[in-house]
């Protein structure tokens, strides 16, 4: 069953390659959706795919490389609101 997880990631996540890290992880787990920087210096992520793939993505997301530092992840999971066909970095 297709699921969607929407995340807001806070910490040192802008200007450190975090969105590219997220895109690579999403592609590795065959997930679609997007990531984008927010004005408050956090990063928004929306991923869609099988529940097991999203769980694996979330586990890997919590293991970033320096200089990325995650302080907090706000997470909501639901049925997809709109279907994506690839994973994109939005500006």
Overall number of domains: 1
Order of helices and strands: EHEEHEE
Span from first to last CA? 30 Å
> Structural class of the helix and strand makeup?
alpha+beta
Q: Which CATH class is shown?
A: Alpha Beta
Beta-sheet strand percentage? 35-45%
Would you tell me the overall average pLDDT? 96
Strand order of the largest sheet: 4-1-3-2-5
Provide the low-confidence segments as ranges. none
Helicity, as a percent range: 10-25%
> What profile does the largest beta sheet have?
5 strands, mixed
Total DSSP helices? 2
The total strand number stands at 5
Using the CA coordinates, give the radius of gyration: 12 Å
| CATH topological fold name | Alpha-Beta Plaits
- Name the shape in a single word: globular
């Amino acid at each position: 069953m297709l699921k969607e997880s929407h995340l807001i990631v806070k910490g040192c996540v802008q200007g450190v390659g975090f969105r590219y890290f997220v895109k690579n992880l999403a592609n590795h787990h065959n997930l679609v959706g997007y990531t984008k920087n927010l004005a408050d210096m956090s990063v928004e992520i929306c991923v869609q795919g099988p529940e097991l793939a999203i769980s694996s993505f979330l586990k890997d997301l919590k293991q970033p490389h320096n200089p990325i530092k995650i302080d907090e992840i706000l997470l909501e999971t639901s049925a997809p609101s709109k279907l994506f066909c690839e994973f994109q970095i939005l500006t």
